Each structure stands twice: as structure tokens, then as C-alpha cells.
Amino acid sequence: MLTWNASDYGGIKLLIPRSQDVFRPSIALLNTMGERDLFKEDEAPVRVHPDGGVTWLPGSIFHTACKLDLTNYPFDEQTCKLDMIAMDFEPDMLQFVAIMETAGQLFYLENGEWEIKSSKMSAEIIDVGDSPMSSIVVSFTLRRKPEFLVISVLLPIVFLSLLNLLVFLIPVDSGEKISFGITVLLAMSVFLSITSQMLPKSSETMPKMIRYIFCLLIISLLTVVDSIIIVKLHHMEEKDEHASPNTEPTAFSTWIPKILASNGSQASPSPYDLGPRHGDGESSSRSTSPVVEERVTRKVKANRYKMIGKYIDLVSLLLFGLVWVAVTVEFLISSGAKI
């Protein structure tokens, strides 16, 4: 009905009638979150050629639903589809044909968050309820651009977790060992909450990035607990001194040598003598008093506590460092991190 011989009409090879005067199929979008009928009020021009070919270029903003898999977030790829059907016709009356294998990108403007990795077009017969309908499916494979998220969220968390390992290099006597670890722990908790708010709520899977941050949070928590134990061991000396009896010289312990000397007996050495006494060319070896032995024992025990704390510091630095490296490498490999 729309064909003519151009030579019979003065060489006219193109007609542009009103779009309402030309047959246009009613096209609906199945996976829509907005208006289902896509082009019911579209006034895009219709171009009619002498051979009966009609070109119609409608346009619209499609609000579609897309199921997301955020397992590898922010290094994820998503596949979204546009399922368009002809609502008023059976497949034997109207059937779509995909004249291209991929979606055209002539007027595509690059997005700041996503890039189109590939696209595909196909014509299918699908069942809508009990009725088969002709449909055309346009699918896009989108790859997220992770640079912004990596720089603004992931790298600060990694640096904080690495900084948290340095808590084992802080001397206990500085008094900042525990407070430093708790500060880093709180900072990581804030970043974890920020990352959770950035994620879409429609994901059915747990992102590996959240698991990775949670593992770093656990490591940070364990380093704080470890630091508390180390500080406790370091101050075991004060606990022993408070628990030990008073060993300061008393009047009774001072009078005993004087009484023995007045009786002509050889005065026994004061319990506070730290070594042998030399006099009149004679040297006598004296055994160490019990009080001195107790002091030395406490001193050795205190030094032993401090040495244990230092060894725990060293071992913890190596152990938590290896765990941090293992967790980070596993996350990068499993999520396919490519920047």
C-alpha cells in the first residue's frame, strides 16, 4: 500500500507523513519499572520509501529492572536486558527481526560509572502468560569502573589495616599502644558503614569486598586484644610489688645486730647487705639474705614478663602480617581485580 514508482511522481523518493497516519506496532517493555507502553505518544517522524520500507526512530527513557550480582563488587560485571514485545499481535501476524547482532552506539555517551563491554540483539518468541508473543531482546554487558571506589574507599581501608599492624612496634611505656589500636579500629568501622550504604539493596549475594573489610575489622579487633595482653604482662611487676609483703627496714631488724654485738657475739650481717664485708684484712663470704633474694626474684620475674611481652609483640607482628597479606591476596584474586 505504501509503494510507488518514483518516476511517475516527479522523482519523489521519500515521504514523511504524520506518524499517526502510518501503522506502528504497540510495543511494551516487560521488565519495566515505569510506563509499559513505550511509544504510545511518540511523535518521531516516519520516513516512507518507494519500495514500501518505513523507517521509524522513536526514543524514550526506559526504566527497567535489572538483577544485580555484586559478588565481585567493585570489580563486577552486570548483564541487563530490554525485553520488548508486540502486545496486539500474535507471532504469525507480526514478528520482529533483528537486523543487527549488536546494539548501535552511534549516539552513545560514555557513562562515568559504567562502560559497555558488549551488547547483543535477538528476536525471540516468548510466552506471556498463556499467549506466545514476538519479542526483541537487547542485552548489555556492563563493567563497573572501579577506580573511584578503589581510591576513595578500598585503599584507605587497606592502609588503615596495614597501619594497625604497626601497633606492635609502639613501646608499652609510651602509653599509646592500646589507644592507637582502638583509634584504627573505630576508623575501619566507619569505613565499613560507609561502604554498606553505597551498595544497592537489591543484591542477593554478599560482596566479597564486605567480607574482606569484615576480616580486616576482625584482625584489627584481635590486635587490640593482643595489645591489652602485652600491656598487662608489662605491668605485672607493679602487681607483684603490691602483692608482696613490706620489706623495708624496721626498728626490730635494726636492733638485733646491735644486741648481738653488745653480747660479744659476732653480729650477723644485716639483711640489707648486698655483698661480703671486708675489714681488718679479713674477708668473709656471706650468703645473700632472704630479703635480697626476694627482691632479685621479683626483679627477674618482672624482666621475664617484659621479655614475654616483647616476644609476643614480635610474633604478633609476623603472624598478623602474614594473615593480612593472605586475606588481601585472596580478595584480589577471587574478585578478579583489574584496574
Structure description:
By secondary structure, this protein is an alpha+beta fold. The chain has two domains: 6-144, Acetylcholine Binding Protein, Chain: A (Distorted Sandwich); 148-239 and 301-334, Methane Monooxygenase Hydroxylase, Chain G, domain 1 (Up-down Bundle). It is 39% helix and 15% strand. It contains six helices and eight strands; from the N terminus they run ββββββαααααββα. The protein has helices at 147-165, 177-198, 208-234, 236-243, 251-262, 290-334, and strands spanning 27-29, 46-48, 54-56, 77-86, 114-128, 131-144, 278-279, 282-283. The strands form three sheets. A four-stranded antiparallel beta sheet has the order 1-4-6-5, with no helix packed on it. The protein has a two-stranded antiparallel sheet with strand order 2-3. Helix 1 packs antiparallel against helix 2 (177-198), helix 1 runs parallel beside helix 3 (208-234) and helix 1 (147-165) packs antiparallel against helix 6. The longest helix is centred in the C-terminal third of the chain and has 45 residues, at 290-334. It is rod-shaped, with a radius of gyration of 42 Å. The chain starts with 26 loop residues before the first strand and ends in a 5-residue tail after the last helix. Mean pLDDT is 77; it is low at 244-257, 265-275 and 277-287.
